[in-house]
Structures are given as C-alpha cells and as structure tokens.
Amino acid sequence: MQFTRYLFSPLIRIIGRKIDDYAQFRPSALSMQSLVDFGKLRDERNSFEFLKKELLVRLANIMKEVELLPSQLMETPSTKLVYQWYQESFQELLQYENANADESTLRDFSRQLSRVLKRHNTVVETMAEVSDQGGGVPRHIVGKLFNYMYTTASLPSVENVEYDAPMAGLGYGLPLSRLYARYFLGDLFLFSMEGYGTDACLYLKASAVDASEMLPWFSFRSKKMYESNEKGPDWSG
C-alpha cells in the first residue's frame, strides 16, 4: 500500500498543481443563444478548442469552492463521492489539454465527454410542481426552505449511494433549483398558504440572448465568506 501511494504521489501532486493553475482563470459565461448557435453550426473543432480548456477551468473552480465547504458537510459520504467524481473528470479531460483537433482526437474526446456526463448526470435530480393543494408549508419553516441542508425528509440510507441520486433528501433540491434558475439570470419563488397549498413561480429570460450564464469564480473572497460565522448568500447573490 505504501509503495502504491509512493508511485501515485507525483501524479497527485501534478494534478493538484493543475487544479490550482486552472482555478486562477474565470469561467467563460455562455448565453442560451450561444449554446443554440453551437448546436446549429456543429463545428466540432471549434467546440473542442473551447471545451478542452473551459471544462478544466470550470471543474477546477468548482473543486476549489467545494474544498471551502464546512467540515461537517465535507465529511458526508455524498459530498466525498461528488468531489471524487469532479477529480476523476478533471484528470480524464486533462489529457486533451494540448491535443490537436484531428479526427481521432475528436472521436475520443466526444466519447470521453459522454462518460463524464454519465458520471455527473445524477448529482442533482429535482422536480417542481407549479401549484398544489397539499396543505401548504407551516409558516415557521417557510424561511428555511432555501437553506442548504435543511430538510423535512428522513435522511436517506448511505447504501448504494453511488447508484442513486447522492444528494436526494439532504436539503439541496430547492436551493439548487433556484441556483440553476439564477444561473441563467432567472429566479425561483415559493408562495405557500398554510392549510391550503403551495405555488412555485419560475422566472426565466424570454430572450435567449439575455440569458447568459452567471458563473461562480473561486477567489480568496470566497474563502473569507466560508470562514465567516455570518451566513451570506451564495454566489448568485
């Protein structure tokens, strides 16, 4: 075991330095229109040249943010698993960092992206009703609904966490749903009448050109926010 760690320790250090390097760059925000244009043009080479660096920048920034989470959250099996997935994806995509966009590389890169997508597509699973008559939410907990890790559900079993949605039932559904809406400059609001029901209002930009990504960017300011005892908003404001 010690010999194995010795063999892999140089690689781990190299990956760590690469993560530090890419985390210094700010992710490039895309609009809904630019995503549509990418799909229409189907220019694989331009997409490859953009993604081979951009994905590394985004993954590095995400991992740096995750490292600053409260220790209680970092020790949960689901967070460890998700962080491991980001590490694996970063390492796999790093091999294309300086690759040329020849036909063979484009095919391999496309297959690799499919594997990365499959790895991450169960990180968040959410479903929102527009309106219901399920009795509403008690007024004394309405203010907590968008707090991370606040849940009224029973904690899920850690068994088979690799195959199920690892963050389901842990109090991430509503805050992450709102975060995804704000990701494209929209928003999510809940209106509840205790004893009657709840309405969920999702606002999105009508124009695809205006719906640009609002991306998190790791910085020392982020570190200060996590170290502070005062609870502030997430990166979306």
UniProtKB/TrEMBL annotation:
GO biological process: regulation of glucose metabolic process
Recorded superkingdom: Eukaryota
Compartment list: Mitochondrion matrix
A Pfam family reported for this protein in Swiss-Prot or TrEMBL: BCDHK_Adom3
Major subcellular location class: mitochondrion
GO cellular component, one term: mitochondrial matrix
InterPro entries: AK/P_DHK_N_sf, BCDHK/PDK_N, BCKD/PDK, HATPase_C_sf
EC number: 2.7.11.-
Coiled-coil boundaries: none
Keyword vocabulary terms for this entry: ATP-binding, Kinase, Mitochondrion, Nucleotide-binding, Transferase
Family of the protein in this entry: Belongs to the PDK/BCKDK protein kinase family.
Protein's name according to its UniProt entry: Protein-serine/threonine kinase
Species this chain originates from: Trichinella nativa
